[in-house]
Fold each of these.
Amino acid sequence: MFSIDFDSDLIVDVKLVDIDLLKPHEKIIEKKKTSLAKFIKSYDNYYIISSIVCCYKSMLIIDGHHRYFALKDLGFKKAPVTLVDYSKKSIRTGTKNPLPKEHIIEIGISDNLMEPKSTEHRVFCSKSNEWQPIILLSSMFKIKTNEIKI
């Protein structure tokens, strides 16, 4: 169950994915990533985390760059991911000056990252008839913190 109504075929899968397959397109705010990593590490056995939203074809990270980099820094080999069909018109890349999705994918593939928060991905909610933050498509995952070796 999700807190918004969206196209039923938008989410392709929800699973753990090899973290090295994911492709960021934005830089992060280092302080935010460090704080998140410390917070995750502070839990003795496990932590509940929102999945990273990714394009199922390109593995581009759409939402969750700080989660991705924090998990990577902590040595996680797999990351919780919600795979979506990024080509759907019910996902947009910004409100004022949206970037073409193909351009964002090219940036993710090239490793030439954009500045933090350059995109504002949103998903259309058919119930409210409004665009909502795409993190609302995330699923919650339990990750084991007692296996962190750093």
Note: The CA atoms of residues 35 and 99 lie 29 Å apart.
Amino acid sequence: MSMPDDLKTPETTAAENDELFEMANLYPRTTGLPMTVWVSPRGNARHDVRIKVNKTHGNQMNIDNTAVVAVRPAPRIVEGQLSSDDERAVSEWIRLNEAAVIAYWNGDIDTVQLAQALKPLPSA
């Protein structure tokens, strides 16, 4: 999703920073997933609803180590890679929380309302 540094202009770097600022960081204790995910409002995006998923388990917040997962029409990886177990868990979490993630994307709810609406994956 990010472009090589040598192709970035001050405008693209500012847009990426704005995108990061708007994202809600969701840790494993909130989601029931083994890794941190980021959910964001649409902003100026030209694509449909997506979330970013940290490839490393734990409370990691390394945006450069992510996979991008589309929400609609069904969860699917659009950039990067996840293990099959992680992909399955993320897809299940998206299906469980699709309405809240889409409402946040559309600007119908704020971050506090998103956090209140999210359901964690059931414990394995």
Note: The CA atoms of residues 104 and 110 lie 6 Å apart.
Amino acid sequence: MVSLIDYGAGNVRSVHKSLTAAGANVKLVSDPSLISSSGAVVLPGVGSFDDCINAMQKQELLEAIRSFISTGGPFLGICVGYQALFEGSDEFESQEKGFGIFEGRVRRFPDSEEHKVPQIGWNAVEVLQDECPIFKGIKSGDYFYFVHSYYPQPSDEAIVATTTDYGVPFASSIWHENIYATQFHPEKSQKTGMKVLKNFIDLMS
């Protein structure tokens, strides 16, 4: 069973649909007591960093998710669900703190005529960790779909699984032990995104 975290601040329908199409048995979860029994957890993200963190705090999901991660179960963060793993964000000069599982902050793309902010659309990844399980069958130059103005800047470069260039190079995904997270939206990335989701689901077997 894949628990898809529903904290009421984002549209989880497309993620639910894609995970199901990839072969997962998916359950929408907003009750923190149900997370510990999950086979895997997916934290989607739409909207602002503060909205995400505030909503999870109100529903007491932060500690439940952190506890699940500590058990070694597969975890996938998507977009703001990826950004939330870090210490904090520059969005709105945010005072909210993220999970703090990884050192680093979430930064905003610099404004430029060539690269409009937010980045909306397809962009290529460079795979830095070929052995990363969720990128099995994915190669450098493959395209994924992005919608974001902010991106995490990890202090530890060793956790960066892929990079992408949008005026500046940034960590478009990370991998550390049982934690996987992507700035791109696999649920909107057609065949390449479905491959990533299928690879993640396979981690439960």
Note: Helices lie at 13-21, 49-58, 61-70, 80-83, 190-202.
